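Review box. Two proteins, two foldings.
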Amino acid sequence: MTIKLFNRQFQFSLLGLSLYVLLMALLCSLGFWQLDRSEQKKQLLMQQQLALDAGSVDLNRQSITDVDSVRYQKATLTGRYDNAHQFLLDNQIIDGKNGYFVLTPFFPDGPGRAVLINRGWLALGNNRNQLPNVEIQTKQAQVVGRINHFPSVGIKLKGAEIPTDNWPSVVQVIDSKVLSQKLGYELASFQIELEPAAEQGYKREWKINTPIPPEKHLAYAVQWFGLALTLTALFIWISIKKSSEHTA
């Protein structure tokens, strides 16, 4: 197939043109997908900031049925810790070091369900078989923190939600229903991330963030569109080259 444009001849096969169109469609769709992901992440960050700026939720008076509607909002509750039954969420990497999130059940005063309080991150010791001491000095407390989902994992292995028999109990994935069965009482389907200034906690840096920021998605989009532009330039160059060789 030959096309004359701007006093130049472009010669290419139907197969080559079809392959070019297919790759262009793929690269452009990936670029627009990354732009869409960037916009979604911007909205998520805005949602987090708006939630933090909203008023706090008193969990002694208010029950939560839709976690997403109050996610990242500040929460307060008074009650007591279940010091004897605590969970260590394994494989939590911070600053390149492996460790645990310490999650302690908390009974709010009143009829509400128990809530897991994420008291922060604790580094893994030299001996994995020797669990850290996470006892709480006082059981009665007032808790202030941020409402959030439980930490997620990229790939969930079979049985990862099953905690170990001992206390503190080590678990790979938090499933509130499974942990409720082990405890013998019902847990809420969310966690409270203990505020950094509170006592009885470990390393806490609850950030307003997303695993991949909007800027990175935008950079990926530029890369995909750049590849599409490079493919177009290469296709034109090959077509002109073929034309020159043909006329020679």
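Next protein.
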Amino acid sequence: MKVLNQENTGELDKRTMKFLGISSFQLMEKAVYALYRQLKDTVKDVDRPFVILAGSGNNGGDGIGLARLLSEDGHIVELYYCDYAQPTDENSKMRSKLPRMKYLTESTIHSESDFPNLPNNSIVIDAIFGNGINRPLSGLWLHLVKHVNSHSESVTVISIDIPSGLHPDSWYGTEAVKADFTFTIGQPKKSFFYSESGEYTGEWDIVDIGLSYSETKDLHTNLFYVTKALVQSSVNLKRKKFSHKGIYGHALLINGSYGKMGAAILAARSSLRSGVGLLTCHVPKIGYPIMQISVPEAMVSVDDHDYYFHSCIDTQKYSAIGIGSGIDHRSGVEEALLYILKQSKKPLVLDADALNIIASKEDWIQAIPADSIITPHPGEFRRLFGSWESDEEKLNIQLTISKEHHIYIVLKGAHTSISTPDGRIFFNSTGNPGMATPGSGDTLTGILTSFRAQGIPPLAACLTGVYLHGMAGDLASKDKGEISLISSDIIDYLGSAFQDTFGY
């Protein structure tokens, strides 16, 4: 799914209306009914008073339409007009359709004295400013937003399309409505993927109003949202009847050291669960019995050193190599890693300590082979490439590095971002905060290495691996809860994630 900018979002609306042969008001009506269904699905206890804040644009028209449907359905609704400009034609028409009934009251905000009383447990619908905002809030409307936010502990706030005050593309760094839920229309906004915006968007869902995505073909964007449909179109993992393990690749995982063999185990188990044909784990001598007992399906290659990765090993017989989880930073590890970077001709997945070593060495980033996958978390990314002032700047750095060094960067976090050498960024749609747990990154390394060993191209491996990793975490959290989720749970639910995504 494309993530469109502010200008292209408006263009898509126009193209959809032309394609479907409908007016702007008819498209608004489609949005209102879809938003109403989303409201009923999201907020189970809707027998509460509603306070709707409706601006003078088309976003406000959506809010007015919701006021109509809610009041017709017997809900108590207080509708407040926030007329910062002359109402659009669609907004005015939506006002004219409002029913005259006891459940609905209408007021207009002219000054702070007109601000609504927000009863405890009420549902506040924010439809003041939408996607078209082009400057930070100020004056009366800034004070209104602060008034709403001051009641955030006692009311439920739902923003229509985007919280009022947020820009869809950029981070203003100023006040915006702090929503519990955001019902965004058609596709997510770029700013939804910034950590700074998280406290404002709350939980957000895409509301389908029938926009014609066939009309987006020539609308340029380098930003995409990773959905199940995208993953399904990226790779075919269906196995043939007469297939055998020899055709699904031979992965090499170089992970673990004294006291950190758990990282090697997690990466190995997730690699096997992701369908690799053969797996060899290269570990220090201390890890040999641990791996043989913990992961009997894997073969074990033993390093010359007792406690950590030290040997310059031949990698030619392997299909792909994953390296870094728990390998430590001691003398000899750096030389052995550099040997892999310079000598290996096979696809590489670099994580954890491998990235920390590279970050500590000037110009070692130059040694990473083209088309490699690196999987830093934000701390490792900062050590590698420097600091940033905002998530928008961080994404720009990520994209620049991918293009300059022709590597794929999987920057882990909420909505993990995948940057490509051709200048695209993909934001993941799966995963949850429970996955912020030790070893979660090791499991992802195992999955990605497995896919690369199976011959899956780097972008498809990243999209599929990150999506399935997050989906497994989501399925695990439903049974275990987010707080109790551990990395082994992610591996245990990988099979269910494959079935949910591909049906096999």
